[in-house]
Amino acid sequence: MESKYVLMHKNTEVAEVFINEMIGGISKIGDVINADHLPPGTAKKGNADHRALNEWWTGRSIPASRSGLKNALDNLGISNARSFLTKSYGLSLSDHYWIKPAGTSLAWDDMNFFENDFSEDIGNILFGGVVSENMSFISPDNTSDGWLKKRWKISDGKRILLKAGSDPFEQEPFNEVIASALMKRLNVPHVSYEIVWIDDSPYSVCENFLSTETELVSAHRIMQITPKPNHQNSYEHFLNCCVIAGMKKSDVIAFIDRMLTVDYIIANQDRHFNNFGFIRNAETLEYISPAPVYDSGTSLFYNKPVKRIENYESKPFRTDPEEQLKLITSFDWFDASELNDFTNEVGEILYPLMETGFIDYVRIKKIKDIIAARIDHIAELAAG
Ligand SMILES: Nc1ncnc2c1ncn2[C@@H]1O[C@H](COP(=O)(O)OP(=O)(O)OP(=O)(O)O)[C@@H](O)[C@H]1O
Ligand SMILES: [Mg+2]
Which of 275, 298, 315 to mutate to test the pocket of ligand 1 (most atoms within 8 A of CB)? Predict the structure, then answer.
């Protein structure tokens, strides 16, 4: 069964699309109404590229690798998370795209999750809850990315994201807090994470950094704006795409310098191109700034027993962390004195994880030593 929708960008009609509800994909594109507003990287010569738009649309659904998803789908008797997308109009709390059933007069103001309430049903089910009879699919959890168990909630009117850790150490939420503390000291714009405990498990909680005025465009999307020529490496191609998108090259470099430095200090293994991005205005399409650094939890050897901690592979530009450091243009902004006694703060942050028996003192000591050594290395590079 195929239904007709209008792909919307906030209040702008972008294109007519036909969606196959069973498969959850875009089977056909009708008239393109406003090509400028197509999701970045899905236009080809002023027209919509079917393959690229379909990849973008299906990539909006909960990834198949999401922890606990299979259970949730089994509970619901549904085979594929993509079929949730149309049930919640494709709305998200990270951007301003959505789909309007053709012939209806639904409006962004009444639909968006930034200002309107949403159901907690899908979030409950993703967290292992049971299916109720009249459950509602109207939830931004249908469009949230990433493999860790997570859900959106409304708390005091704010949209907050709860994100779990993983066995055996449950370290990811604490790594987010350590990364927040590090970036606070270094004055690097970041999402601030805190810990909440629910049923003896720790979760990181952060506020939404977007609004009805601003949306996130991932680096992955930016890099689809133009094909990568063979002579360019991924870093050069990325910078080139940012410039084509209208950003100032020096601002992008300054941001990447900071992000790569932080990632080196925390030995981040997962800074893929969907784990950083840029904020733009969905009406003017103007890029405003890099997004504050988010999702730094897959770091500090989060799943390795102390005895197995050794080398790791970095992302997104180089797999060798030392090689990736060489892409940094300037350390002028790096003030090592801001990191005096930082490892003590790390110890304090991790303490509750030891108290609850998830990690021991040997692990805390090892993490502190790793961070200290990596800070020393950056300080040496910064000193020239
Ligand atoms: N504070 C936030 N405000 C708005 N959107 C957010 C926020 N944090 C994350 N997101 C969006 O949700 C997505 C998933 O979140 P996040 O990257 O933190 O999860 P993850 O499970 O750790 O991902 P990964 O699979 O990369 O490890 C992000 O890619 C981003 O699009
Ligand atoms: Mg992520």
Answer: 275
